[in-house]
Amino acid sequence: QVQLVESGGGLVQAGGSLRLSCAASGGTFSNYNMGWFRQAPGKEREFVALISRSGLWTQYTDSVKGRFTISRDNAKNTVYLQMNSLKPDDTAVYYCALHTGSVLTIRPQNYAVWGQGTQVTVSS
């Protein structure tokens, strides 16, 4: 059974940076496309970024383009989300998830395994 554990969240002022990490265990990490999602209080979970198995393909939601960067290290079974120029609207619980299908997707219902989430709070 694959497990995902996020870390790196915290409280930061607007304009600051954080790097989230998601460590996988119990599976073959390089077989999985990986995604980051977030959920703010009272809102639905939304797609943030995804990265393909090899790391060659990435995709971002419009609101984070140019500020966030997703990457992965298959040797370390870890996916990262570098978040720069953070805004108060980025405040949410951030989740990583894995997708075993061959077609990349931003739909959370297509992701089979989720981490427990890490809180990111951006103060104004």
Give a description of the structure.
The structure is a single chain. It is globular and about 40 Å long. 32% of the residues are buried. The protein starts with a strand and ends with a strand. The strands form 2 sheets. Strands 2, 4, 5, 6, 9, 10 and 11 form a 7-stranded mixed beta sheet that branches. It has a 4-stranded antiparallel beta sheet with strand order 1-3-8-7, with no helix packed on it. The protein has no helices and 11 strands. A hairpin with a 6-residue loop joins strand 4 (33-39) and strand 5 (46-51). The model has no long low-confidence stretch (mean pLDDT 96). The chain has 124 residues and is an all-beta fold.
Any descriptors?
124 residues; mainly beta; seven-stranded mixed β-sheet; four-stranded antiparallel β-sheet; 0% helix
Question: Multimeric state of these chains?
Answer: single chain
What structural category arises from helix and sheet content?
A: mainly beta
The number of E-state strands comes to 11
What is the helix tally? Answer: 0
**Principal-axes shape call:** globular
Mean model confidence by pLDDT:
96
- Taken in chain order, the helices and strands follow as EEEEEEEEEEE
Q: Kindly provide the radius of gyration, computed on alpha-carbon positions and rounded to a whole number of angstroms.
A: 13 Å
> In which range does the helix fraction lie?
under 10%
The termini sit apart by 40 Å
Quote the beta fraction: over 45%
The largest β sheet comes out as: 7 strands, mixed
Q: Unreliable stretches, pLDDT < 50, 5 or more residues?
A: none
